């Protein structure tokens, strides 16, 4: 089986069956520049989820196949009914979150608490798959990592307002550029902050890639930091 073709055909089939793919069904590959093995390739699926080659790849073609293989496995697995967000799934997830953080039931019903916000996000995405939910959560992970959520709280924005705004906002170049500017400012205030964050992000990205995990959060972080480094360089 040509796994690269199989992955593309899978997403074209999803689109032909009515899947809402805002940017079409194209699967995008990105090779990490290198003159010698091991070669590394990332693949971004139409919804935004990202996977990478998870084996030692002696050729660029092998790296592409490795990335396609893990992406296809996840794409197919994601279609299983158990991967849909249902009422039962929401109750189970919220109960587990309460147990992990020693929370109480009232917190789960208050959208201004962390667990309440988590519940609100799950409720808003009922019927969607886990990959679709993860794509949305990546935006909030980045806002948290970048300190944007903290800044919004300081401006008295409620969690509900932030969730309502960003739940319908795709991760675009405006958000990336704004975050990159925040890192330019951090670097100017504290020289070395950018290179430390980039080194730690590259380590996390490599570990997650070799473990076959979904990579968009780590990959977006790296791209934002590289954008900031480019702005500082120019």
UniProtKB/TrEMBL annotation:
Q: What does the entry list under GO cellular component? A: cytoplasm
Please give the superkingdom of this protein's source: Eukaryota
List the InterPro entries hit by this protein, alphabetically: Autophagy-related_EPG5, LIX1
SUPFAM superfamilies of this UniProt entry?
dsRNA-binding domain-like
UniProt GO BP: autophagosome maturation
What family does the entry list?
Belongs to the LIX1 family.
* Name listed for the protein in its UniProt record: LIX1-like
């Amino acid at each position: 089986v040509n796994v690269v073709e199989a992955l593309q055909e899978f997403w074209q089939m999803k689109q032909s069956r009515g899947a809402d793919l805002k940017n079409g069904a194209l699967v995008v590959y990105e090779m990490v520049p290198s003159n010698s093995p091991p070669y590394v390739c990332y693949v971004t699926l139409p919804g935004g989820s990202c996977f990478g080659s998870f084996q030692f790849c002696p050729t660029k073609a092998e790296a592409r196949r490795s990335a396609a293989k893990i992406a296809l496995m996840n794409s197919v697995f994601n279609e299983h009914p158990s991967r849909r967000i249902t009422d039962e799934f929401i109750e189970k997830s919220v109960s587990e979150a309460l147990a992990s953080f020693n929370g109480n039931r009232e917190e789960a019903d208050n959208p201004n608490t962390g667990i309440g916000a988590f519940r609100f996000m799950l409720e808003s995405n009922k019927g969607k798959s886990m990959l679709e939910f993860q794509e949305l959560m990546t935006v909030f992970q980045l806002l948290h990592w970048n300190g944007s959520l903290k800044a919004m709280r300081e401006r008295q924005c409620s969690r509900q307002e932030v969730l309502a705004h960003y739940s319908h906002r795709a991760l675009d170049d405006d958000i990336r550029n704004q975050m990159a500017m925040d890192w330019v400012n951090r670097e100017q205030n504290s020289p070395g902050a950018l290179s430390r964050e980039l080194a730690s992000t590259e380590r996390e990205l490599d570990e997650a890639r070799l473990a076959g995990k979904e990579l968009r959060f780590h990959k977006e972080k790296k791209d934002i930091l590289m954008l900031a480094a480019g702005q500082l360089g120019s």
